[in-house]
Structure formats: C-alpha cells, structure tokens
Amino acid sequence: MKASTEVPTETPVKAAAKAPAKAPPKKAAKNKKATATKKAVPEKKTAAAKTAAAKSAAAAGKKSPPAKKSPQKAPAPDTALVRRARRINRELAEVYPYAHPELDFENPFQLIIATVLSAQTTDLRVNQTTPALFAKYPTPEDLAEANPEEVEDILRPTGFFRAKTKSVIGLSRALRDDFGGEVPGRLEDLVKLPGVGRKTAFVVLGNAFGRPGITVDTHFQRLVRRWQWTEETEPDKIEAAVGALFPKSEWTMLSHHVIFHGRRICHARKPACGACPIAPLCPAYGEGETDPEKAKKLLKYEKGGFPGQRLKPPQAYLDAGGIPAPPLGAG
At a CB cut-off of 8 Å and minimum separation 6, what does 133 contact? Predict the structure, then answer.
C-alpha cells in the first residue's frame, strides 16, 4: 500500500519540475512573434491610412495631399509683368524727380513720431502740428516725461489725439528705456516699439537710415492693384509681391514715386486718367476722367499749382515749382 501511494505522489512533482525548463523557449518564441507583429502593425496602418486618404480625396474630387503645392512658395513673377512694372517706375521717376517723404523731420526721432501721428490724417496736418510738439519735447526723454493732457492739446488737430498721445509717449519711453534714447536702425527692433508696424518701420529705415524698404500705404495699395502688379490685399503680401518685381536698391524711391502719383493724379475716387503720363501703360485707364481738360482740373499739389504738404520741403521740390504748405492757422 505504501509503494502504490508514493509513486503517483512523486511523478507529478517531477513532471512539474521539468515543465518550467521547457516554458522559457515557448515564451521567447511568443515574444519574437509578438515583436514581429508589433513591427509590422505600423507599416500596415500607414499603408492603410494612405489608401484611405487617397480614396477619400478621390471621392471628394480633390487631389491627394502630397500633390498639393505649398502656399509658402510663390511663383516667380512673369517676365512681361516685371518689364512693364519697371517701365512704369522709370516713367514716374521722370515725372517726379523730386519725390520725397512728405513729412517734415530733422532726425529719426522726429520722423518716427510724425509717421505714427500720420495715421487717419494727412501729412499736411501732421506737418502743421509737429513744430509745436518738437519745440516743447525735442527728445525721447522729454516726451517720455510729458503731461498727457498737454500733449493731447497739441495733437488735437490730427484726430484720435488721445490714442496718439498714448502711442507717442509710450514710444518715447521705450526709446529711452530700451534703446538709450536713440531710434534703432533695424526692422526687428522698430516693430517692437508701441504704435510701430512694418509700414512705419520702412518709412524710418528708408528715409532716416538709407536702408531700402517698401512703404505700403493706402495709395500704394490702390495703385499697384490698378496696375495689376499683384492681386494681394494684405500689406505684407503686397510688399513681398511688389518687392519681387524690383531690385532691392529701388524699393524706397519706388514707394515715393507711387505715393506721389497716387496723391497727385491717380486718386481713389476719380483718377485724372486724361492727364496721366503713364496712361499707355495702365491696365485701368478709363476708370477716371479721360478728357484732358477736365482731367487737369483734378490734379493736386504742385501738379495743380497748389501748395504741397511740407512746410519745409527739399530744395529740389521748390526748384520744380513746388509751393511750401502754410503753417497751422495761417491764411
């Protein structure tokens, strides 16, 4: 009885002892299969995702994503467009050899302040207002410490005088605190100043530091679209599109030529087409008055025999028959 009861008890124990020795190879095999399966899964999913995306795009009548062109890569400008644009600029240079910034200034500080003040008003009104401002506050340090109410009284004729007072005082404080009281000569520094965007920055860079830039104001936007230089509507995109048509060295004077023409002849509401020197090159000819005699009556500033916008214009402008603007309250 003892022999028969001991045998079955020992046999399972030995079997159990041998079993664990065989188990690791089986588990390792399973692990290898699992690893192989995991590696294969992403490939299958990627292929399936590509197939599904292609089918979805085909069903919607669209091209698959890889076939789309990147919007960041603008096509090179058409050669004929480049030739026509440059010819227009050459013609304008002959018509306005005295083209210049129409804000009175004697240093970079005066120019940046005047440009900020020119928003929503004319350069003429700014020029009539800044003499009193700069006489009282000639430096950034002076304007930074100014009494806002006193500045508001001076800037009232320019419109939005409370907001402009806040801007010029904040701008002056930034110049004092961050730039040692000097206007920086780099785009990346200028656009960090309160109230200064790319347009103001390029006015300052081009006219106070001699560094090329395109000034995209309302006149510039209107004319380059009329001339079909670009269909863009956002200033930074207009700047890039037009800049691609001209050498960088011409950008600043190009801005002056276009803006001068927009203020004197190619007006927003009623262009003087019949008196326009570039009419044969203009795709928009006929939008305004085409009769030569009637068109002449639409000319402004020196082209129409009237005073300009600067109280102290460059000598070249005076030599060409330009008349200085009167001071504030004169006449």
Answer: 113, 143, 151, 154, 155
